[in-house]
Specification:
Blueprint (H helix, E strand, L loop, with lengths): L2 H27 L3 E4 L6 E4 L2 H11 L6 E4 L19
Antiparallel strand pairs: 1-2, 1-3
Length: about 90
């Protein structure tokens, strides 16, 4: 997907989520993953990205899905498991 197409894809998926899915899903499924097929508007829920994507691929093989963690600004969070110490 080229940059312009990727941006259009993201915008379309976000619009589907904000207008159609967020009001329906956020209260009951907060924290779960929703994978959205932007062409059909179909969506698939899972506890993980892989689970949601697998459900989507069973119905729409070869499609690209947009994943959102319901109720959160990002699908994943980045944390370091390293501990840093200062030497005084």
């Amino acid at each position: 997907m080229r940059n312009g197409h990727a941006l259009a894809f993201d915008r379309k998926a976000e619009a589907i989520y904000q207008r159609r899915l967020k009001p329906k899903l956020e209260r009951k499924y907060k924290g779960r993953i929703v994978a959205i097929d932007v062409d059909s508007g179909d969506y698939f829920l899972g506890r993980t990205v892989m689970e949601a994507m697998e459900k989507g691929r069973r119905k729409h093989p070869g499609k690209i899905f947009y994943a959102i963690r319901i109720g959160y600004p990002a699908v994943h969070s980045l944390r370091s498991t390293r501990q840093y110490y200062s030497i005084d």
